[in-house]
Amino acid sequence: MMKHIRHRGTRLFCLAVLILSAAAAITAEETGRVQTDPESWKLTYRFLPGRTLTYNAEFDQTVTGEFNGETTDIGGTARGLFSLTGTGTGEEGASRITVVIDSLAAEHNGSLAGRSIDAGGAVGKPFSMTMTPRGTISGFSGDDTLRTGMGFNGPGRFLASHFFRYYGGDFFPLLPENPLREGEPYTTEETYVMDVSPVEMHFAVAYTYTVTGKEVIDGIECLKINMHSKGTIDTPAESGPVRLEGDFEAETLFWFDVERGVIVRCSYDQFMEASMSRQDRGVISYSIENRITYTLIQ
Length: 298
Known about the structure:
The chain is mainly β. The chain is built from 2 helices and 15 strands. A hairpin with a 2-residue loop joins strand 2 and strand 3 (70-89). It is globular and about 55 Å long.
């Protein structure tokens, strides 16, 4: 809130400004340069039409569930390459992107160890999606028949776009609306809804970004940014037969090429505790640990 300053206070304030200005001028003359505000950076994703980015990605997930007094550990790992090619720009600067999973090797562990994952229906087959300059992903098309057999709940249960649909914010961190300055944390709160048939998942997340410096990765000068996120997830009773409630926290470290609008390297660690109930089938309590790392290779 702005305060009203009396005339005497105004004169004193102006005198102080003159003294500080004179001091700054003397300092500038002595050092040979004019002092300026600290450097700031506005981060946006840019997928130029015709430019292809290829990433080497690793994904590890561990799920520990408890139901009727029994504990089960499941999880899996995935390793692969995926390519993103810009094909155009839509509303409000959103990029239209063609995605190809170039290779994928995945396996279960824990109680599902030994069950095969068949990625043949997804590898090498393009689908498209849209990404806003801040990193919100939507508008999937062409992936309806590109399915991956996970070795349980029937063949071909998951779409090729599964990780981008449900883990898109992990692959591509949501970028802040405001410019960042080195060493000055910036916090923003976001809410969004994810449609995961047959329910809607509602998220409320607080993100804190901190630029920790600059670093050269494979000859590319990048900003090194830490992003801490903490939030809640729930499914309103009216949204479907499954009720989910939980809390999660994540730590993301990413290296961003500001000039090109490209992530060069990223590591993401998330921990979630949640409970899920479905009609009269009881409540399942579980914890999930996700770790994702990926690096731009071309």
